Amino acid sequence: MGIASLKDLYLDDLGDLYDAEQQMIRTLPRLADAAHAPELKETLTKHCQESRLHLERLQLIFTHWGAAVPSQRCAGLAGIVQEADDRLTEPATDDARDAAIIGVAQRIEHYEIAAYGCARTYARRLNRPDQARLLQETLDDEARADQRLTEVAEAHVVDDARTEADLHAPASVSRLRCVDARQLDYKRLSPGALEVRNDADEKLGAFDGLIFDSTSGRPHYIVVDAGGLFSGSRYVLPVGHVRFDDRARVLRVDLDTEVAARYPVFDRAEFATMTDDALQGYQGRLLDFFKRDDGAGRPRAAVEDSQPEWLMTGVWMTIPPYVGKPR
């Protein structure tokens, strides 16, 4: 269908989501059957049941508009589903296969989190608060499922899937990597440079990239280009400190310019050449810094805070798997 208005885009995206949920209902039982860990089977089975509820919510929204559910294919999710099927046919140990299943299941969740986040925002813009609430309920379900998959992986699967060589690998190998802003698609947030401003609307710089965990893919910090505002041209902020101001289309942080000037400097060239030991030390220094008080009586949030919604739904990121020392 043609896209002539925000309503057209909204209904088209909902049609994509409807097909995505149908694909989920067909795929999750296959993943659950192939899973070995009981906790993983239970999580996948439960989310399949939730997907049926998600379909009902979408049907209700189409009914509110007096529109039929469009017959269309969600090509994005179909690609992830094909990857899931390929994983299931590969020879692997039980634990390694469970780790692979969690990986593809979380790719599905992240796709749907992004899509439902956009649809929810469109509903608000179209002055459909009831529909926005329904979509938010589904978005919350997807986020909980993603978190549960992470918990299963961390508690029962990933450690067991390591090889004997992995068990004897040096403990100093760091998991931090950096992705440049030019490799990220954040057009949903801003068509140009994405500014970082404090609550007093003072400019603190511009969004310049992410530092993330190469094992989980979870971003921990944003890189801010201060653009000559401070002595260091770039510094980092934990993602949990940053929120998106939808009206101003900027990233907001509760931070004075004087305090921001004292934040850890980030040198992209130096980071790229760090040894594993140096990266581990750098990661430790960041953790120590952000666990201390910032001088204003406000404790720093933990780096492991859950990812903010703006990052999950507004930034598309494709990260190659971690294969060793090169970054």
What report would you give on this structure?
The chain is built from ten helices and nine strands. Strand 5 (219-225) and strand 6 (234-238) form a beta hairpin. It has two domains: 6-166, Ferritin, CATH 1.20.1260; 176-317, PRC-barrel domain (SH3 type barrels), CATH 2.30.30.240. Helix 1 packs antiparallel against helix 2 (38-65), helix 2 packs antiparallel against helix 5 and helix 4 (94-125) runs antiparallel to helix 5 (129-157). It is α+β, with helices and mostly antiparallel strands. Mean pLDDT is 80; it is low at 159-173, 293-305 and 318-327. It starts with 5 loop residues before the first helix and ends in a 10-residue tail after the last strand. It has helices at residues 6-34, 38-65, 75-89, 94-125, 129-157, 164-167, 257-260, 268-272, 276-291, 309-314; strands at 176-180, 184-185, 195-198, 203-213, 219-225, 234-238, 242-245, 250-253, 316-317.
